[in-house]
Amino acid sequence: MEKNLNYEEAYQELAAIAAEIETEAVSVDVLAEKVKRASVLIAFCQAKLRSTETEVNKIIKQMENQPL
After folding, report:
1. What was the pLDDT predicted at 55?
2. What's the CA gap between 32 and 26, in Å, rounded?
3. What does the alpha-carbon distance between residue 46 and residue 30 come to, in Å, rounded to a whole number?
4. What is the pLDDT along the chain (68 residues), one digit of tens a residue?
5. Of 1, 10, 29, 50, which has the fewest Cβ atoms less than 10 A away?
């Protein structure tokens, strides 16, 4: 995965691939390549969401433990 890829870029690329596949704009010759790329992007987005969820939960717990 590219070092500078962020969630929004990955999601946009994934949405574009999905649209191409849904509208049958992808030739059979490149279909497997597009599906493989989509798989990589999905894994990246899932990892990013899990990481963000963990970080947010950590921050919330810290906030709960601070006296007012």
Report:
1. 97
2. 10
3. 24
4. 567 899 999 999 999 999 999 998 889 889 999 999 999 999 999 999 999 999 999 999 999 988 76
5. 29
Q: How many Cβ atoms sit within 10 Å of the Cβ of residue 36? A: 10
User: Tokens for 25?
Assistant: 């704009």
Cβ contact 9:30 at 8 Å: no
In the chain, where are the structural domains located? 28-67
Could you tell me the two tokens for 10?
Answer: 């990955």
Residue for token digits 């990589």? Answer: 40
Burial label, 26 (beta-carbon count in 10 A; 0-12, 13-18, 19+): middle
Q: Is 13 left (phi over 0), alpha (psi -120 to 50) or beta?
A: alpha
Q: How high is the pLDDT of residue 65?
A: 87
